[in-house]
Description:
With 797 residues, the protein is α+β, with helices and mostly antiparallel strands.
Amino acid sequence: MTTPISHTREFLEERFGEAINAREQGVLPHLAECGGFGPPDLCWIRKAAVVGTGDDDADADPQGCYHFVLGLEVSSEACIAAYFANLVANVETPRSLIALVARIARGRGARRRIQGGIYCCYDAFSRSDVRCELTVPGGSQSYVINRDGQREDDVSQEVWRGAWVSAVIRALRADPTVLVDIYCLRRFDPLPTPAVEANFLAFARDLYLQGGVAMLTTKNTIMLDEDEGDAMGATIARYFILEQRNVVAVGFFSQLLTSVPFTVVNIATPLLVMGNASGAVGLLSAAFRSAKAGPQSASVLAAAVGAMLAVALAESGDLPASCGAAQEAAAAAGVDGDAPCASLAWMTLADVYSRNGSHALALATLNNMPLYFLETEQGQDGTFPISTHSFLLERTCSEPGGATVDPDTEAESRLREEANVSGHERLENLTASVMFPPKGRPWQATSIGERLRARTYETLVEIVDTLGWDVFLELRAEVFIMRAELDGDGGDVHGETEPDVHVQAECDARLTGIDTGTQTTHPETRVDSDDDDDSLAGSDEETGANRGGASAGIHSEPARTRHVDSEPKGASEDAHERRDAAAHVVHGELPANKQLCNVWLDEVIDALYEDLSEYMEWRLTDFEHHLHREQGGGRSEDGSDRDEDEDADGAGAARRGYDDDALARAPKMSQVDWLRRGQLCERLGRVEDAERAYRVCVHEDANYTAWTSLARIYVGFGWTEEALNSLHYAIEVLEAPRGKHGKVPRVVQHMLRAIVAKVGLQAVREVQLKDCRKDFHPAINTLLHDIVRWKVLGWDR
């Protein structure tokens, strides 16, 4: 065993030096060939037994320990030496003989001291490993292991700067869903002060101007894979957008526009977030003309800029021009494009067609999208880069006193714990809940395929909302070859009728007002805890006929459009026919012949069918419950409403059964079921229903996932008091097991900044002063002071 270091968990080596050897033999050669931002920093420490403590021979041997680091400033050798000195000063020492005997009795072995160590930081720009070797007592020596595996003793200032910029980018892109499995990890705020941030931006600008950024890729890192061609720029832009400091992002990238054309995308994105669509359109239009006039090699740039221009034009309300830009972007990407932005250009074209009401063209566009993204499997781009040496994450760990709590990984652990609770089987096994990442995790590592499937699902939801499910199935049969047509049995190509929701006939007749479309939520109207019949069943003015048949119930199961093959349709279809079909779609025409539907698109449609079926069953059960109350079944003996007696938000309905047979068939709802119902409603765009489900969930018991989801919804509504309350309870739930530690997950910080940006700091302060019945969590007040220090959007109003 080893002497622990306060606040720092360490892995204990089984073979001395195995961590350094694994990095040299597996990680660095792979990164030198493929590129990428690299793994977290590795801090390897050599410990030796203290002389005179009666150690045996085994204890006298050196002990190798290591831990990983993210966010530490590594701009010079002095920064690393300071970190190492802090580790040496925090080695735990027994303060008495009794403490030493107790330590040995606990199996920790004799006391050891730090003899030295090696700190390794990967420079993604030179594809080399910068190292600082330290000895105690003694000094430090820095050197580089270059991309050829050779040692170079001269570490230039450019390499130090590249190493630090790489370290900051790794920390900004870090995905808590991956980091939670790296037990011995220390994380630091990579940009703790405005002065440090200014230095970082200066170094990053120099790297752009020197052309070093062009060497970067994002394959096989622990971070997000980017849709854009400039992964580093997208990371910086996302950081400022989430921090609600879009003006800084625009200023930084504007300095690079003449030298790095791709940065126009990273300027337009924060402009759109700020609502400056006209400014984004002007900037992107000029860049798009330039990219189209450039060489063939600029097609990737043209596809990315054209897709962004289409989005900006749509935001400004010019849908015809948006459609034209999207068509040109898809044409530039080509049907065989192998860059992520090629698939994105086609996805944007499908979105624009859908918004213009050309739903058949939207389906055909999705079906002819370049198949590059299908080759990117789930989680491939988020793999820890030493996966071939996964034993490094499985070694025994030291447990020091006062180990540092990382709020992001702690929050992720809580999210996993709440998501893994067993509940209603059908809700738990919905395909979409597995296929698509949950909302509210902007830093979660997802592949391009996952993101495009999620966007496809959203587009299909919009189409079904407009047309209704049955009309959607008819449209689908017009665009694609159906299974019945392939089999030649003359069957119904629109889908078999299989009622999935069992209700009494008279209730079914009264439920014709229930729609499956996206709700339009009005911020000025609060969602009351006991919804009235109209909010559940729809009014007479909004019937199924008026909504294109969406209310007909999800009785028509989607028929298979093709036999389920083992490979995508595009892999076996003649390339010429596929290009011809794509050319028709780009020009706003349906392909001359009906096509087979790709398997991936069928899977997304099936996932939507499952979600709509489950949602409708819930709405029907709710309607039954209201009928039951209208008939007096919901009244207690004294005439009071039993729902209101038990709770104010419908949780009583979740806990007890009903007398009538139809309601008795419905399973009782547990807390996790309400949580999953909320996530289901969010996927379908039913924000009001999602809010209601989450409220019932937190009424049942404390739930971090539900509180953060409520906060996200309330921020979108602009409801300041409700948002602050939700964030307050989310922090309290997270701190309950450990006690207050003053650290808040990034997602909570971002939501607080978002509400300040939306309503202004003064409105938030007024809510704090008004609600004198309770004190908000002190971390909220600290974050509000940080908002002023960083001059976040809304801080001055």
